[in-house]
Amino acid sequence: MMSEFFGDISPIKFEGPASSNPLAYRYYDPGRVVMGKTMEQHLRFAVCYWHTFCWDGVDPFGMNTMDRPWIGQSDAMAGARLKAEVAFEMFSLLGVPYFSFHDRDIAPEGATLAESNRNVQVITDLFAEKMQETGVNLLWGTANLFSHRRFMAGASTNPDPDVFAYSAAQVKNALDVTHKLNGQNYVLWGGREGYETLLNTNMQRELDQMGRFLNLVVDYKHKIGFDGTILIEPKPQEPTKHQYDFDVATVYGFLKRYGLEDEVRVNIEVGHAVLSGHSFEHEIATANALGIFGSIDANRNDYQSGWDTDQFPNNVPEMSLALYYILQAGGFTTGGLNFDSKLRRQSTDPADLLYGHIGGMDTCARALLAAAAMHESGDLNALVSERYAGWDSEVAQAMLSRESTLESIAERVERENIDPQPKSGRQEYCENLVNRFL
Amino acid sequence: MMSEFFGDISPIKFEGPASSNPLAYRYYDPGRVVMGKTMEQHLRFAVCYWHTFCWDGVDPFGMNTMDRPWIGQSDAMAGARLKAEVAFEMFSLLGVPYFSFHDRDIAPEGATLAESNRNVQVITDLFAEKMQETGVNLLWGTANLFSHRRFMAGASTNPDPDVFAYSAAQVKNALDVTHKLNGQNYVLWGGREGYETLLNTNMQRELDQMGRFLNLVVDYKHKIGFDGTILIEPKPQEPTKHQYDFDVATVYGFLKRYGLEDEVRVNIEVGHAVLSGHSFEHEIATANALGIFGSIDANRNDYQSGWDTDQFPNNVPEMSLALYYILQAGGFTTGGLNFDSKLRRQSTDPADLLYGHIGGMDTCARALLAAAAMHESGDLNALVSERYAGWDSEVAQAMLSRESTLESIAERVERENIDPQPKSGRQEYCENLVNRFL
Amino acid sequence: MMSEFFGDISPIKFEGPASSNPLAYRYYDPGRVVMGKTMEQHLRFAVCYWHTFCWDGVDPFGMNTMDRPWIGQSDAMAGARLKAEVAFEMFSLLGVPYFSFHDRDIAPEGATLAESNRNVQVITDLFAEKMQETGVNLLWGTANLFSHRRFMAGASTNPDPDVFAYSAAQVKNALDVTHKLNGQNYVLWGGREGYETLLNTNMQRELDQMGRFLNLVVDYKHKIGFDGTILIEPKPQEPTKHQYDFDVATVYGFLKRYGLEDEVRVNIEVGHAVLSGHSFEHEIATANALGIFGSIDANRNDYQSGWDTDQFPNNVPEMSLALYYILQAGGFTTGGLNFDSKLRRQSTDPADLLYGHIGGMDTCARALLAAAAMHESGDLNALVSERYAGWDSEVAQAMLSRESTLESIAERVERENIDPQPKSGRQEYCENLVNRFL
Amino acid sequence: MMSEFFGDISPIKFEGPASSNPLAYRYYDPGRVVMGKTMEQHLRFAVCYWHTFCWDGVDPFGMNTMDRPWIGQSDAMAGARLKAEVAFEMFSLLGVPYFSFHDRDIAPEGATLAESNRNVQVITDLFAEKMQETGVNLLWGTANLFSHRRFMAGASTNPDPDVFAYSAAQVKNALDVTHKLNGQNYVLWGGREGYETLLNTNMQRELDQMGRFLNLVVDYKHKIGFDGTILIEPKPQEPTKHQYDFDVATVYGFLKRYGLEDEVRVNIEVGHAVLSGHSFEHEIATANALGIFGSIDANRNDYQSGWDTDQFPNNVPEMSLALYYILQAGGFTTGGLNFDSKLRRQSTDPADLLYGHIGGMDTCARALLAAAAMHESGDLNALVSERYAGWDSEVAQAMLSRESTLESIAERVERENIDPQPKSGRQEYCENLVNRFL
What we know:
Four copies of one chain form a homotetramer.
Chain A: E1 13-14, E2 24-25, E3 33-34, E4 37-38, H1 39-43, E5 45-48, H2 49-54, H3 76-94, E6 98-102, H4 103-106, H5 113-134, E7 137-142, H6 161-180, E8 185-188, E9 194-195, H7 203-224, E10 229-232, E11 242-243, H8 248-257, E12 264-269, H9 270-275, H10 280-290, E13 293-298, H11 316-328, E14 337-339, H12 350-377, H13 379-387, H14 394-400, H15 406-416, H16 427-435
Parallel strand pairs in A: 1-2, 5-6, 5-14, 6-7, 7-8, 8-10, 10-12, 12-13, 13-14
Antiparallel strand pairs in A: 3-4, 9-11
Helix pairs in contact in A: 3-5, 5-6, 6-7, 10-11, 11-12
InterPro entries (chains A, B, C, D): Xyl_isomerase-like_sf, Xyl_isomerase-like_TIM-brl, Xylose_isom_bac, Xylose_isomerase
Family (chains A, B, C, D): Belongs to the xylose isomerase family.
GO molecular function (chains A, B, C, D): magnesium ion binding; xylose isomerase activity
């Protein structure tokens, strides 16, 4: 059975850079081997359920613009099944290896949590069949703890302990189905974990609640034998005025505080990085330095808009630097490249969903080629190593060890009359070097 | 001997809110008792040396506009002595209890570090006399590890270990003189500890260097018996593209990583908070929640400028909320309220230095009155407590303890069919409540 | 008949600054005379229909949180009538003299434009009665040309001329009913007049369309004898990536280009000013300088959020400076102070609607008192006049007239060896002066 | 005579994309013909004097880092001559056809304006010889009306009319020498034309002064027969809190107000566009739409820094879109591509000056190839034309002409029951199309 939503569009194929076919890949050639792995194995693309199948063009100033036959059906479970149908058709058309979802994306909320959970289970059973048929796998699952009004003041950080309990129960189910579908990761995005105003908020209490909640999740993961990675997705704000998981460095401090730095990693989104005042590659490099890199939400943020625009990636230089730092740290393990990207509101045709993903996948594939070439050339690494070479000396290493003290170092500076001379950092040279690979 | 820099201006006195004398305090009444302490004891005002006595109006697009007779003297030490003269005259005119300085603010760089250190010691000996005479004390000292070209690629995070060593030796001297002058705190601001481009940077290495450096400083502090507080001052960027001490939460993670969260606290600046995408009160509340609040750099940032404008505080509501959170946490201990504030470039008269500080001090004094009234009324605290009251129940507390698991909670949610209902957060009510005290 | 929506709350009364009654005015005393007019005559408060009665707490990440009985009624016109009932009850409770609306706020969209127009006419007939009963008047009306999907690519700037036509017809009706209700102004906000991407946009064409549209509106206004003011509301972006009416200065250039600078004025919103990188008082002062000041949308934007937060005003200093510049230019004529302000999403109680407006009105009333005192003191004006006094000389005026040339001026500079010396701008002095009145 | 500043570096040659020589062009091939003109004719590259030869690494937090032998010479005119020597050597090494300067970049300020003017004349006479020798031409000259303390409160907008006069005399001389050197344009950047605080400012007065000043300049240009273009460079802020020439649209309104829209055009800088909340291509497209496009200052702004970072261009996609819109409007006439770009402070080697320019020139050359291919393909233009095709009908054109009225249009909408249906804007398709050419 085919839904006919995409009409007679054929599966998207690689045709090479010279192709002008808008429904072909120009760079994404899944089987092409780069640095010992195929492109597919490197990039681990996932299509997300929410933007792709649940959003119909509503924005804060306007109604829906897109006609999605599965939205608004009187039989909500029938709508959910049609949605799944179209979703797996699209995964197949694109040839992506993974997808990702929130529990509420895939199945309607019921009258009780028990009923909601059952709805989710029904649809995930359907997913299991379709995954079998198509070979598409689950990159990650997650629970939507932000859309319903009960979460308006937070999930685990809610002033009402019943919301904490409800959230725990909902996450348990979401983690169960993610486990059943052999998900590679489980994600927590604290969309409402933060505050609208400090005036009515007890931050310390809320952080403790959130730390406790995450420990509950980690304990349960081990109990059921889920060996995927637990990921936190940092975001500075929106929908709340301020979110606790502001950025990678903040999440690291939170994990340290609650003893979770070896258990939990981060899922970094381009747009969230931008909103928090960082570059995307900064967030990745920070996660590498702190040992908590996990996965990415690939998209693009409009640099002139102060909110999360979730556009499809099309900026090759931005994505190349990101993938360079990911390759530097050994590439993805359980993580992958999830398109947390949505169409512009005026892109109302079904084919636009394909154009968005094709462009995003080609951008990332091209960026992978650039990043791999940059990495393999070793030029930049050599330059960096050379810049810090002075630290290899014995006397330098001694300063980093417990042997030295401020006094002993000061004494040596005076004795040797140390007077360090600046040396060019060669930034423009480095930037030109990078441009050679883009 | 008087320098005559300020002409015949008399010491600034409290004249009350009705006064229209621009050279009088309208709110700052040092001896007035508020919540059991005098205003002077609460606010612990400090005048900073750098903006006030070292800056002559230069900006990135223009030359100096202010005539400061001590700048550019051919005998640099004579200039430094004149500067000290004027500084203590000004402290006395204003009646401030504290001041603060970088080593390079107070004495010229010598041909060697040893000579630079001696210059600093000469002037701090002069300070000791003047402090004795005037009763003015030292809120904090610090070392300037960012202006000289040797620090262009960082101090402790420099790729050249000799700069690390040089910095260690310079900090030792700065800490020694701070200790000698009975400074209440010692501050580290990592102005160049960050990067201009990730391309030539090894972030992990640099963070480890910085962590080691701070441990050296803490060890030395204990060795010499300095019982002031070691403070880090977060700032997201400027002069570097990205500073490692981005904001309070980032600094917390850094301290945890290097085992220093019980040794080091933060000195929070209004302008730095704004540049990092937070409100000032957010940074204070965060430091309170994480247990690392230390001191503040009071100023104001232009909300439309994307750089550190360091204006004198004049926003009573902004400062009132900050002081409210400081009072909530018990007020300053070793910390204080340092004016990291500078005149606008066109404010070229000596009297402008007084207007700036008078306005800033009155703003803070008025804010203290508002904050204390808000705190004493207890209305906001009661509202917050009531909002979280549900957590006092046994079953709620059990969720926070080790007894509960995700499963046990989920089981209870289903059994009791828990369906939490949202309750108004009453933000506008809270905001109106605050306005009652401003 | 009473709707009972607000329960047994009594009309809000002035009780003075000492009152701690959250349902009383502390500063807004409608009949109090300030600078020769009552507060009510100065401030000309208006409650807006859209945020207050049409929004139920939906945000881009979440469902409705507020229960508004008139939303979602199966008989949409019955819902519209109930909404009108509650609206006028609230106007009376607050004692506001004005309200404002979009056509689609007050009545449901019909199957055709003709039917939609009739729905609007039915409700505005009801308004006429209620206005008669209550004495509440209409500050302005406007047409919603942005919510329906037909406007997704703009109204007058749409690539499809049928949308231009449809918009013209809709505006005609909205202007007709505004005229019938004796509206003081008619507003155009170009929510979708801009672009999502330049790539598919012909900017010149769209500007010409928009210029033509506005001329059509102005011509029609004169034809029907509407003597209210036509107002454009600048906003830089959101919902579009970029709006053509970016800020006051941009609107001025647009009006000049299409010959409308004497016909149209601006309605300036606090939040829109902030989003465009200006202070609110800057936008007002600019409109004054260019002769196009009209009215204001009073609200407040969160300074850390990059989108339009539309919070109730509660920042007395910000509002005081704005009102100071408005008083400087003679105060409102047809304009007024419309609360384009909405509750926070968690403020779910009916009483929160009252708290929001009470706090906003008190903020503005207090700001009016401050602004009037500042204006009446004349201190700031005197300082400004004195600063430019040099321009009163004959030789200075000659430079501004057609007599002088670059050569004649240069010749005089050399002859007189003119060497201007800088003079303090006294910014901190001015800021302290302002704080004396706040 | 050679200065030996650049050691034994040979002139930079084109070696093609495969070259890994950091001192070669990979894309800039001056004689290569693109769309009927050589690359050199299209791009009209200019090296700027100020960043390249006058800046030594000083920043607001630090001293100079670069050793420039011509800075700080006791014989300032000898320093100026050495600087000119090195400058023309560098122009020749790079093979750029143009340069640009401020009067104060090239020669020291004298004791009087007359002496300053003579210094400028001496050096420009030297320039004339070197231009003859090397074939390098002047893209534009300008007067520095912002660095000296006399301009701290503005040049033409100064409250002191003597500063207006002084500025007029200085501009006369700068325009004279620009004319003598056959400059293609004359630029005015109002670095201090704005305000630090509205409180001490009369905006209307200052705008009138600025309008009058610009008219004086235009009159004088005609008088002396200068046929270059007068250009204004928009910038929103920095050094002032707010500059009057905020962005392109604001400048347009200003030109219209003072009757200069046919006389003056804009010089658009990448970084200034970014700071004003626009994309670079937006500013170019706006200038095209309003008929005032002139020239560009090519650079790049760090997207995470809130100040003018003036980095060398290296973002090919950003520059490609800009050049696409420039080609769409027919390419440069008198304008060109001036590198208002400076080294990073840590790039201290003379060779870094070459790396910066080489990278920038290659970025622009590569962008030109992409833009030309995009333009020549016509795909995007076709898509845009098709999108607006409905406007070609007679009835649509009638709405734009004076024949239609709001009533006649409304009558037709009702009669024909017009109900426009949205059509996909195909943004992702367009973006993919663009990526095909990058």
